[in-house]
Description:
Layout: H1 10-18, H2 30-40, H3 43-60, E1 66-67, E2 70-71, H4 72-92, H5 96-111
Antiparallel strand pairs: 1-2
Amino acid sequence: MTVTYDLTTDVGKVRLIITDNILSEAHFTDEEITYFLTAEGCVNLAAAACLESWAAAYALNADNEHMGDYTYAQSITQKMLALAARLRTNVATTPASDIAEWDFAYEAETEG
């Protein structure tokens, strides 16, 4: 399983967006991010899917730090899901011609 950070690749761009760029502490492998890129079709949607997956991992963590009704993991999860929603909204509101260019660039990179 590989973990790299190269901003000339879509995997690197996803890592930048989700701040999974400290390789010694990376949450996702390159192969996992590549799966999300393939399933979602563009960098922003892949980043959103990664954030949703990462938030799910936090939500399942039994070691949450509680302070009254507030939990540390709950705050992180909410922020991750909010960013994922914003990324999905940005893609949904982007003109179709721009998305087609993103898809073409991704296809060219994966075929090359």
